[in-house]
Design goal:
The protein is of the alpha+beta class. About 25% of the residues lie in helices and about 35% in strands. The strands form three sheets. Strands 5-6-7 form a three-stranded antiparallel sheet, covered by helices on one side. Strand 5 and strand 6 form a beta hairpin.
Length: about 120
């Protein structure tokens, strides 16, 4: 897992130059960036991102939850193949909806969980 390295997200500078991240922190940052990006938003990479943002006005029912789960799994499979989603659950906190992703790293037998707000 230590071979996963890149620029930190959000982008920032430190004394030695651009801040970097590696290992599980980098994968978590990649997932957060992916889920925060609307499909088609990146000018030079239109296929990057997820369509879950377009569901904001849909009824909050089981069908919508199933659709969100499927879209999350598809975008992570396409853009972060180092993880395999094992479970997706939702949490409501006041007026905000969060998704909890449980996933396994494909290169080693370790699991992780990430709570991401859906806005």
């Amino acid at each position: 897992m230590d071979n996963v390295m890149g620029f930190a997200f959000p982008f920032s500078l430190s004394d030695g130059g651009v801040q970097r991240a590696s290992g599980q922190d980098k994968i978590r940052q990649n997932i957060r960036a992916l889920l925060a990006t609307r499909f088609g938003e990146r000018v030079m990479l239109r296929e990057y991102g997820t369509r879950i943002h377009s569901l904001v006005h849909d009824p909050n029912d089981e069908a919508m939850a199933t659709l969100v789960k499927r879209q999350l799994q598809e975008c992570l499979l396409a853009w972060e193949p180092r993880v395999l989603v094992t479970n997706v659950t939702f949490e409501r906190r006041e007026a905000e909806l969060y998704v909890r992703l449980d996933y396994t790293h494909t290169s080693e037998p370790s699991t992780d969980s990430l709570l991401v707000p859906l806005a």
